[in-house]
């Protein structure tokens, strides 16, 4: 067969594109990627993916290897996370799918227990405001009333505040181990105990922490050892060091977990039985995760978690020694959030978003997080997030000076003022408009069209017609995040949709 382009040319093009990406190895990106620092694990994962590349996880009766690998992964994570023989599980495409399935299962169980038809009632989903946004997506998809519970400025939720929201109309309560924004470990045992008394199931979102916290010392009970915990999600493409995307959803009880499945024989094709939202599933990430757990075992994961922990403690100390910055709360696990230290004089303060942008100039990528106004009137501070991996320990001598130098560069500079970025006339009549659907299910007034959204992006310095032309990313994040905070949430969300959509549109 004659190919239109030789394979080496195709791979050269791919290499040129990848060269523009943020580096996925070496610890220079402190979010999104999880580098063990062990090249042989990457090679093992790549070989496992190659071996399973043609396999379709849709039908384990045809591809028995899929069933065998999934059995082993569920057994490994169940044992690591304190599950007994009543706990069963499923390998999914990632943390979002695991969380969606946990919520879908809870909805169906709640409806069935009351003899209600799907769509006839909207149960509540109770969770801290710091719970992952995947649960907002789940509430939107599966018809829940979202009931977020405010947390303290340190990111910690009080168990009593969450328990006070429980009731017969709650289909699921969610807690995190830890919560991504500030690395706060939610009070799992206290919530689960009270929820069990109310007959409310509890899901522990351990997507980011599940493969690391078992080796973190002196933690309160948080996993499947806690009575009342009904399900737990853990990502193997995070601190399991597998390629994207592979996660495990563990559920207590076969009958509950069977409600997670979709099955139909009501069409003329093959019987469809899916434990996940996806039908066809790649066997590659599954095989990679399996291979890594087989190679590392519990002791290997413990060693890598120890490296990440030492690096986290060193980074926390380094940040706390930078004049004008502070670590938020009491972070648990290999992640932390950094905010402005408001206790020092304004000329000494460091804005975390400007700091993150300045750090990029030194070759390191941090993740900016906007301030968040809660329903009780309190506002969580805007922060910069750092995810720490085992390889970070090897690069501390480069990273810490870069963080200090970046802080020195921007110390005393105020945040960008969103009011100065946006012409008030450009917002006339837009407040509350959205191209998305509100939780009530009805659009709010009218949608913002694509051209209007592009115009607003241009007003904050993002030319939608040129996004992505000059290399990866969209430039400085501080102005964009300031605008996100200042705009009504539906408007900000619509602009972000436009931003991401324009990035992948074909060029003229």
Summarize the entry for a quick read.
The protein is built from 15 helices and 15 strands. It is an alpha/beta fold.
Describe this structure in words.
The chain is α/β, with parallel strands linked by helices and 508 residues long. The protein contains 15 helices and 15 strands. The chain has helices spanning 7-18, 39-52, 64-80, 95-113, 134-142, 159-163, 188-198, 254-258, 284-320, 352-360, 396-410, 418-421, 450-459, 478-486, 489-503; strands at 87-92, 124-128, 145-149, 170-176, 202-205, 229-235, 247-252, 262-264, 272-274, 325-327, 335-340, 367-369, 372-373, 379-380, 383-387. The protein has a seven-stranded mixed beta sheet, with helices on both faces. The relative contact order is 0.12.
Low-confidence stretches: 431-445
What is the number of helices? 15
In spatial order, strands of the major sheet run 1-7-6-5-4-2-3
Helix content: 25-40%
**Could you tell me the strand content as a percent range?**
5-15%
**Major β-sheet annotation:** 7 strands, mixed
Global morphology: globular
Overall pLDDT confidence: 91
**SSE order, as H and E?**
HHHEHEHEHEHEEEHEEHEEHEEEEHHHHH
Number of strands: 15
Considering the chains and any ligands shown, give keywords for the structure.
alpha/beta, 508 residues, seven-stranded mixed beta sheet, globular, 38% helix, four-stranded antiparallel beta sheet
């Amino acid at each position: 067969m004659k190919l239109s382009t030789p394979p080496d040319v195709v791979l050269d093009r791919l290499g040129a594109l990848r060269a523009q990406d943020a580096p996925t190895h070496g610890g220079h990106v402190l979010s999104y990627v999880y580098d063990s620092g062990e090249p042989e694990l990457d090679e093992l994962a790549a070989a496992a993916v190659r071996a399973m590349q043609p396999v379709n996880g849709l039908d384990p009766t045809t591809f028995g290897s899929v069933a065998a690998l999934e059995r082993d992964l569920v057994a490994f994570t169940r044992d690591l996370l304190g599950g007994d023989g009543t706990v069963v599980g499923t390998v999914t495409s990632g943390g979002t799918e695991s969380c969606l399935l946990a919520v879908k299962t809870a909805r169906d169980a709640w409806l069935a227990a009351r003899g209600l038809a799907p769509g006839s009632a909207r149960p509540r989903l109770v969770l801290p405001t710091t719970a992952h946004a995947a649960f907002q997506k789940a509430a939107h998809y599966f018809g829940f009333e979202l009931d977020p519970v405010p947390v303290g400025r340190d990111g910690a939720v009080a168990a009593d505040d969450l328990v006070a929201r429980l009731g017969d109309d709650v289909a699921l309560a969610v807690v995190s181990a830890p919560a991504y924004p500030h690395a706060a470990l939610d009070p799992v045992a206290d919530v689960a105990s009270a929820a069990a008394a109310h007959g409310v199931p509890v899901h522990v979102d351990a997507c980011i922490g599940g493969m690391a916290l078992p080796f973190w010392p002196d933690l309160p009970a948080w996993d499947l050892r806690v009575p009342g915990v009904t399900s737990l999600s853990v990502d193997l493409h995070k601190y399991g060091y597998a390629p994207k995307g592979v996660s495990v959803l563990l559920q207590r009880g076969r009958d509950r977990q069977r409600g997670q499945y979709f099955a139909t024989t009501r069409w003329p094709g093959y019987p469809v039985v899916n434990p996940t939202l996806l039908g066809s599933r790649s066997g590659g990430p599954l095989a990679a995760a399996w291979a890594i757990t087989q190679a590392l075992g519990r002791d290997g994961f413990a060693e890598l978690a120890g490296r990440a922990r030492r690096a986290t403690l060193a980074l926390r100390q380094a940040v706390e020694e930078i004049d004008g910055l502070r670590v938020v709360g009491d972070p648990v696990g290999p992640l932390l959030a950094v905010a402005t230290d408001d206790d020092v004089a304004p000329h000494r303060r460091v804005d975390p978003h400007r700091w993150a942008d300045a750090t990029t100039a030194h070759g390191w990528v941090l993740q900016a997080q906007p301030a968040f106004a809660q329903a009780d009137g309190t506002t969580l501070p805007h922060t910069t997030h750092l995810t720490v991996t085992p390889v970070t320990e090897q690069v501390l001598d480069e990273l810490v000076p870069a963080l200090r130098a970046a802080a020195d560069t921007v110390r005393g500079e105020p945040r960008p003022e969103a009011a100065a970025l946006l012409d008030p006339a450009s917002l006339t009549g837009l407040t509350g408009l959205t191209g998305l659907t509100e939780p009530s299910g009805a659009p709010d007034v009218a949608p913002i069209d694509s051209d209007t959204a592009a115009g607003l992006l241009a007003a904050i310095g993002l030319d939608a017609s040129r996004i992505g032309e000059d290399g990866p990313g969209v430039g400085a994040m501080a102005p964009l995040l300031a605008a996100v905070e200042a705009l009504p949430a539906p408007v900000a969300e619509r602009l972000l949709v436009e931003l991401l959509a324009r990035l992948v549109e074909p060029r003229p």
